[in-house]
Amino acid sequence: MNWKTTNRIVASAVFLFALVLYLLTMAPTVSFWDSGEFIASVHGLQVMHPPGAPFYMLLGRLFSMFMPAEYVALSVNLISVLASAATILFTYLIIVHLTRLWQGNPETPTTGHYVVRASAGAIGAVTFAATDSFWFNAVEAEVYALSMFFTATVVWLIMKWGDQAQHEEELLSGNKHHPFRLDANRYLVLIAYLFGLAIGVHLLNLLAMFFIALIVFFTEFDRPDWTTTQRWKGIVLTGLISAVAFFTVYPGIIVGLPSLADQSGTPLFLFLIVVAAVTYGVYYTHSRRMPAANIVAMCFAVVLIGYSSYALIFIRSQAEPPIDLMDPDTEESFVSYLKREQYGSTPLLRGATFNDQSGQVNPQGEESLFPRRYSTNPQHWRVYERYSSDLSFFFDYQIGHMYVRYFLWNFAGRASDVQDAPAVTGIPGIDPASTASSGATMQTPSEEASRNVYFALPLLLGLLGAFFHFSYDWRRAFSVFILFFVTGIGIIIYLNQTPMQPRERDYSYVASFFAFSMWVGIGAAGLLQLAYESLQDRLRGASLHGSVLGVAALLFLMVPAWMIGQNYDDHDRSGNYVAWDYAHNMLMSLDENAILFTNGDNDTYPLWYLQNVENVRPDVRVVNLSLLNTSWYTEQLMEEQALASEPLPISMTNDRVNSLGYIRWQPRTVQLPVNKDRVAQASEMFVTSRDTSQLESPMSWKLTGRPFSQDLNVLQAADQVAYNILRTNAENGWERPVYFAITVAPSGQLDLQNFFQLEGLTFRVVPVKHSQQMGRVVPEITPARLDQFRFTNLNDSGVYFNENTRRMLDAYRNVFSHTAERLAAQGHAQEGRQLIERLMAAMPFSTVAGDARSRILMARAFEAVGDSARVVELMEAAEPLVFGDLRTASSRRNFSFALQYAGMVRMMYQQAGAQESLSAFDNQLETLLAQAPYQLPPDARSAFGLPSAVTDSAGGANLPSNLQPDLPQ
Question: What is the distance between the alpha carbons of residues 92 and 83, in angstroms, rounded to a whole number?
Answer without folding.
Answer: 14
